[in-house]
Amino acid sequence: MLGGRQFPQRHRRCxxxxxxxxxxxxxxxxxxxxxLVNGTLIGPGGQTAVPRPTILGTGTFGTxxxxxxxxxxxxxxxxxxxxxxxxxxxxxxxxxxxxxxAFATDAGLPSADSLPFDFTVTLAVSTGRDCGFGxxxxxxxxxxxxxxxxxxxxx
Length: 155
What we know:
Blueprint: E1 31-37, E2 40-42, E3 47-48, E4 54-58, E5 64-69, E6 72-78, E7 84-87, E8 96-106, E9 109-110, E10 117-121, H1 137-144
Parallel strand pairs: 3-10
Antiparallel strand pairs: 1-2, 1-4, 4-7, 5-6, 5-8, 8-9, 8-10
């Protein structure tokens, strides 16, 4: 009975089709914040002569972060309760340009990729400081390899 009016039996049943879509969202993408080399933080676009820099970042506690270098997985690490994570690659990074990206995994579901973090591994980084022999520190490695002739001194 609807509004005081009765309908024949054939109109009392109606089929309702309900479609439910569930989208599972996990935490946001992790962030690569920098490289730690001998106590110095290196930002995006920087360079290092250390082929195994410590990679630093932030993420959501309870997730694991997988870091890739030029689309090759370097390592996976758990995010700490304070939201930070860090890892040092087990293999040496090659000389040249590197592009790090990271993604988080929570209950087997991956997040989107992080923004890329670009840096360069070089043979030596010039700091402009003198190492005591009249040779800038950045060129000292080249001197040791015989690829750079230091200035001659008249003693």
